[in-house]
Structure formats: C-alpha cells, structure tokens
Amino acid sequence: MSPPSPHHLLLNILVFLVLPPLRLASSSFPLPTIAIAAVGANTTSSQHLACALVPWGTDYQLSCASIANRSAPAHNYSYGGDGSTPFSAIVAGDGYLCSAGPTASLEMSMRWWGLTDSEAPSKRVYRGAALSAVSGGGEYVCGLVEKTIQCWRWAWGVVPEGVGFSAVAVGGGFVCGLVVGTAEVRCYGDWDAVGREPKGMHAMLAAGERHACAVNAGSGEVVCWGEAAAVASAAPSPKVVGRAVSSLAVGDAVTCIQWENWTVACWPEEASPPSPVAQKQFVALEAKGKVVCGVLMSDYSLVCWGGGVAGGVSKVFDRVLPGPCAMSGSCPCGVWSGSAPLCGGEGGAAICYPCGYTPPPIPISNSSASSSHSGEKRRPSELAIALVCTGIGSGLLAVFAAVVAVYFLRRRRSSRSQDSGRIHAAPRVERRLSALLSKGPNTTVEQFPLVALRAATGGFSPSHRIGSGSFGVVYRASLPDGREFAIKRAERRDPRAASSSAAARRVNHESAFVSELALLSRVNHKNLVRLLGFCADGGERILVYEFMPNGTLHDHLHKRPAPLSPPLASWPARLRLALGAARGIEYMHTYAVPPIIHRDIKSPNILLDACWTAKVADFGLSLLNDLSGDGDGNAGDDEPCVTAGTVGYMDPEYYRLQQLTDKSDVYSFGVVLLELLSGCKVIQRFEGSGTPKNVVDVTVPHIEADLVHRVLDIRLPLPTPGEMEAVAYVGYLAADCVRPAGRDRPTMSEVVGVLERALAACEEQEDGGDAVLSRSCTDGSTTT
Asked: How far apart are the first and last CA of the chain?
C-alpha cells in the first residue's frame, strides 16, 4: 500500500480534530491499561483483583494484586521469553485476564489467562489486524477490528457484519457499540440492555453487569438503560449532570463519571470516591461489581474503593501506565506530558492523548521570571530619566540652557526607548514561539502548511472575510469536502518599517498570536472556541479554529433585523445562553492550570455554534493568573500591568489601579448580562440624554430599586410571573458583578450557580413547579 499523500493526511487530521471523540468505551482510553478482574464462585463472593501495566526498569510488566488484601503479593503475567511485556492493553472479567498488543505493529495478538489457576499458561485467542478498541466483561472480551466488533468466548449470538462501529463496551451478557456515521447505540446479546437503547447521537459508551450508559452528543446528558433496578439505583439525573463529561465507568448498579476537570463522581452515593480521593484528579477509570479503580494524575498510582475495600480506599500500585505506550510521532492528538519515563524514556515512546480530552497542566518554570526581571533592570527609558534628573540637578548656573538641553535630550531618549524597547520585544516573542513549538507533541494543535490555508480561503480573498480579532482578520475557510473552519490571520506589516507605532503594532500582534496559541492549546471546554491548529510559515501568523456558523452574540443582539434569533427569542433561552458563556469563563478561572484571565470578555467575543451553544473566543489579550511570569512569557515579557480590554466592558478598578484579578472578567461578564437583559448596547445614546451612557449607569439603579422590569428588552414580551422571578434574580446578579470594588463581586463559580438556579426556576415554572428565589441568594461575593 502506498503512503498517504500530504493532502489526504491533512484532511484526515482535520477530521480527527473536528469530529467529537466517538470511540471511547468504558475506560478513558479505547485501549485500557488498567482492569478489574473477579475471581470467585459468584458475583457476591468474588475477590476483586486490580490489574495494570506497571513500569519495571526500562520496560513494564502486567501485574495483578488483590484490592481487599493489601498484604497479598502481586502476581505478574507473561508468556515466556525474557519476561518483557509487549502488551498495550488489558481487560479482565469473571475469572480471566486478557492482554493485547503491541500497538506499534500493524498486527496485534491477544492472550488469555484463566485466573482460577495461576500456574496455567496463557492462550492466544487472536492474531491479526490491529485493534482500535477493546473491552471486557462477564466471561468474554470484544474488540474493534477494522470497525467491526469481534468477540471471543461469547455465547450470545453474532454481531452482524456490514455495520461499522467506532466504540465498543461489553456488559454482563451483552455488547454495545456506537455506529460509525450516525453515532447511534446498538446492543446485542441476551439481556435487558438489548432493545432499550437510547435514540439519537452519542459520544461515549460504557457497560456494566446489568446496565449501560452513554453521553448524548447534543445535550451532554448521561443516559442509562438496562435492568430497571440497576438504572434506578445508578443513573445520575439530568439535573445533576450539568457539566461536560470526559469518560464513563459502569459496574454492577454503579455509574461513575469523570468530569472535564478530571475529578470523579459516582452513583449511588455509597460508590462515591471517599474523602482521601474525593477531589483528586484521575487520568483513567474502571469499574466492576461495586468496585471502582482509577489512576491518580498526581503520581500515576492506582487506587480503588467500593465494596469490600478496607479503610475506604486502597492504593494497589504506586505507579502504573495510564494508557498504552506508542511512538510520539504516531499520536494524532499529542502525548501525555511527562509520560516518556513511564515508557522507558528512550526511542521517543510516550502515552498518547485520547482525542477530545483536556490537556493536563504543562509544568511551568519559574526561571523565566527571574531572567525577565534581571533583563528589565536597564531599560533605556530609565536611563533617560536618570540622565534628565542629573542634567536638571547640575544646571543651576545655566537654567535656561539646561532646560532646553534636557527637553531635547528627553525627546531623543524617549523616542529611542520606544523604538528599542519594541524592537527588542520582537526577539522575546520569537523566543516564546520557539519555546512553544519545541514542546512538539505535547501540544494538541496541528501545524498547517501555508499553501493549504491559502487554498481554503481563496488566497485570503476579501469575500472570505467574516470579521476581525485581537491581532488580525478572520476568514471563513472551506475544504473541498464542504467542511468549514475559521482562521485568524495577523495583519502583515513590513518588519523594516521605520515608524515606531508600526513596529509596536507588529510586536503586539506577534504577542497576541503567541498568547492565544499558548493558552488555547492548554484548554478544551465545550463553551470555549476550539483551536484546531496554526501556521507560522514565511512570517505568517495564522490560527485555525472551529467554525461558528451563527456568528457573535453582539450581532444577534444589536445588528440582526427582526425577528430575534432563537437564543434571544425567549427569557429562558437568554438565560441558557448566559449560563453557557459563564461556564466557559468559570473553566478558565477554576479548572485551567494555571488559571486564565481573559481580559476582554464582551458580547462580540461570545460566539454561537450551529446548535446555538455559546463559546468564549479571542484569547489574544488573555493572561495566565501568574503575574510573576510563566513558561510562555505571557506575564514576564509583556508587562501585564498595562491595561487592556474594551471600553465599556473594562473593570474600572483594573483601569484605574492596574490591579488585575479574575474579578475583572466577572465585571465584564456582568456587563454582558446587562446587555442580554436590556437589549442595549454597552455604550449608546439613551432617550433624554445628550451624551452617550454606559449600560451599567442606566440599568443598575433601576435593578437596585427592585424595578428590573423597567430595563428589560422591549423586543421580548414581558416575562411570565414565574419567569419574572428568575429574570429579576439574574438582574440582581448582574448588579453584583459590576460592583465598583472587585472584592464585592461574586466569583465565576458563584455566577454559574446563580444562573443554574435561575434557569432551573424557569424550567420548573414551565413544568408547573413553584421555585423560590431571593435577592440574598446572589449575595455570595468573596474577597480577593
């Protein structure tokens, strides 16, 4: 077979980046490296073993140990030879352990051990084309072979051929898969889960002994089906699941969810992670019976909890592989930072990211801060001021001559300091870009060739232009197969330009490009616009994003003619849109590591996708919340004390005192809330006023006087009595967000909580409920 052309390779990468992760099974990885086996006469009396690939010198070995009995020695498995383990994945079930690998080969094999006889040799049950996913349960195991479900030791019929699957999950007596293309769930076998599959598209799949669960690709809701008692005991309600889900693990009437911030929640309550690990972040997760095991992100140790675990939680292995090792160049979505030592540290092997997952924190070095400060001690502007002061002090005998000399000296020095400062800033930006690109596969974005982006935009034709961002023009780009994305191209300027202002703009654009690339390559959230790639060829600075077909919130609020767009046509819809944007900002403040301050939250930077989901965009002015300097130079090199933002949305405390905190974003979001409630532009000429006024000055006095109805958008009907309570509640929240002092404003997590309660009240009113909201409920501000 001939190698793929660069054009087809680019298209395949774009498909992988744009499409949701539809290949996940019961583990965080389609080829899991941890498993739970049951050994015993029946499910209730079974002893559970935790099995994992454990680092061993420059290699790793397959090892299983008792979860309940910590003193029992672990047992290692191999099939002879020198004892090395060419395994890439393991699964387990009732009385068996199964391994598959290696992934580095086009041909894989699978071996089977019967755990009832620890001395019995393994048996090879499969050898052939590479497996893209594998799952085990009951007494059998299934995998994906070229998109076809193939099962071994399965006695419940045959999965029909001719149907392609992107994920597989094995339960007790049944197997389920996600159909390629339609993403619908299909189950086969002899159990209650068969014939009760949920309708629609789904993005994840997991199965346990008596039930299975999936994540609806549209709503994000976790849906479970199967035996009624198991579903009733273990299915989380839609109202509980209000956050993005990263993966699922399902046991016997146990359902666990790994959230987007890597923490874990389980149902029923007694299966929840005990206090020692309740708020810990996990890389991988598995469940069987009443036992749950996960790999801690902090040290890659394997811990388990649940039925029969003494002390609530048990550390089974000090260090395990959270996912299969592979050559880093073969990982389409980057590698797990710091995973190379787990894979031997040689030959470029590392652990691939499952595509669609939030990247882990990239270690930050503090050395850049000290070097940055030391490099700034002798700025030309400071030298000029020193010379001026000396000239003034020594010019007492010739005052007029000295003043004239100092005046011209200051002008010359000031001009030189601006030019030299900006010119010297350019190498700093280049170093930041070089440092970022040197991370190679640790970044989750793709570097696109300039020729491909030129072709996709008709040579950057004006007809493709759709807007502008923090550092350049935004174009709509189209692929030959009809798919679309958006690219932001930095304004091109002659680097030899003599004008200091031109040089300053060029460096600012370079800095914004690097900042946005560095920040967006760290984050992944459904309410943040997703960065797909970039181009830095031939002096170009281009970022490639997912395309937002419904444009900006600002345009729908203030520019589109009647009738109003769907997300603005009703009060519940507006609250839902506000909640989505708030969750994106909350993610930046609370879950990103280190936290991110956007600095330019405004309605033009809230975009709407095809499903009207609100997504925060334009991170060119954003800073990591670590003002001493970070590994990418976002703070140390670019003087964060200089204010940035948009008039009308900018925090007055930040503008006056240059004190930047996450409460500055809260203020800006409060202004957006006032826009949503009133329909007014942030600054406009109001009736009876000769000068333009800020929406804050016009609306907040009415809100604080309990006259919220006087500021509501007249293009919408007045809220119903039930809606009015929720809308007023959001009005009080907006007033709290724009308080003059940052310490008096709520955090974004508190903002999200208030919006969730307001939206729930609207929905309960539609269902005939009677929600009660009070002004005091929004009074949850904290000091900074």
From this structure: 61
pLDDT in tens, 213-272: 999 888 888 999 999 999 999 988 765 555 678 889 999 999 999 887 788 999 998 899
Distance CA 404, CA 429 (A): 38
Dihedral sign, CA of 591, 596, 598, 604? Answer: negative
Report domain 361-547's class: alpha beta
Q: Which of 644, 707, 700, 706 is nearest to 675 (CA)?
A: 700
**Rounded to whole angstroms, how far apart are CA atoms 655 and 659?**
8
DSSP per position, 503-530: HHHHHHHHHHHHHHHHHHTT---TTBPP
Residues with Cβ within 8 Å of residue 271, at least 6 apart in sequence: 234, 251, 254, 256, 290, 292, 306
249 contacts 242 by C-beta, under 8 angstroms: no
Asked if 208 and 254 touch (Cβ cutoff 8 Å), the reply is yes
The CATH architecture annotation of domain 552-784 reads: Orthogonal Bundle (1.10)
* Residues contacting residue 420 through CB under 8 Å, at least 6 positions apart: 380
What is the pairing mode between strands 446-447 and 531-535? parallel
Domain segments of the chain as ranges = 24-351, 361-547, 552-784
Q: Counting every residue, how long is the chain?
A: 784
Whole-prediction pTM value? 0.48
Q: Which residues form the catalytic set? A: 600
